Amino acid sequence: MFATAPLKIVAVSAGLSSPSSTRLLADRVAGAARERLEADQDRRVDVRIIELRDLAVDIANNLVTGFPPRALRDAMEAVTEADGLIAVTPVFTASYSGLFKSFFDLIDHTALTGKPVVIAATGGTARHSLVLEHALRPLFAYLRAVTLPTSVYAASEDWGSSGDEYTEGLPARIRRAGGELASAVLGRTVSGATRALGLADGEDAVVPFEQQLADLRLD
User: Fold this and answer.
1) Where's the NADPH-dependent FMN reductase-like domain (predicted)?
2) Hey, which of 13, 21, 152, 177 would disulfide with 120, CB 3.0 to 4.6 Å?
């Protein structure tokens, strides 16, 4: 029986095309988080995907006037009220896109304090994967969010030749990131000791924080 108040997972996608690999990555990370949350507890999980391409004009108007139109205000409130956030951008000129940055420029710099965030990006080549570390992590550190350890970068070759199927490495990163977000939303700590706990490869163990402290004391 689901509780009345659902957990809220919000994914922000800054993809410009339709269909978009950026949106696809947002969907899959959000799906992995929802799957883990629904397996671990009995509360309903609501997932919302915010497409910034649909809000581009509103974002530009807000930057000029200081007043967000209703649709943009609703999106900003969804982000600030989420239990867990997923932020996905395409790589433009070796960094996040201008649309992505402009949206988060509108978020109050204290509104994401303590909120768990998975950062992710898409690009044409794996050479741009460090954008997650040199651009996105500092941005969300400034916004005082809790950026989770596993970030997800998807280059063109990661999606497979058809564009629908993913290759072996990407699904594991998506599952790991989704599991970390679920654990953070539930206030638990993720451990990589999967074999010791009998979990399959690619799955993450959820270990209570007090147990991890006890293990540190034993060392």
Assistant:
1) 8-159
2) 152
> pLDDT value at position 168?
54
Report the 10 Å Cβ neighbour count for 205. Answer: 17
Asked if residue 19 has a cis previous peptide bond (ω within 30° of 0), the answer is: yes
> Among 5-9, 97-101, 185-189, which is the least confidently predicted range?
185-189
Check if the beta carbon of residue 51 is closer than 8 Å to that of residue 119. Answer: no
The string over 20-39, giving b where at least 16 C-beta atoms fall within 10 Å of a residue's C-beta and e elsewhere, is: bbbbbbbbbbbbbbbebbee
φ/ψ of residue 185, rounded to 5: -60, -35
Residue 196 has pLDDT above 80, yes or no: no
The residue ranges of every structural domain in the chain are: 3-187, 188-219
Kindly indicate the confidence band of residue 179, based on its pLDDT and cuts at 50, 70 and 90: very high
The count of C-alpha atoms lying within 13 angstroms of the C-alpha of 81, restricted to the half-sphere facing its C-beta, is 13
**3-187 CATH:** 3.40.50.360
- Burial class from Cβ neighbours inside 10 Å (0-12, 13-18, 19+) for residue 48 reads middle
Distance CA 24, CA 22 (A): 5
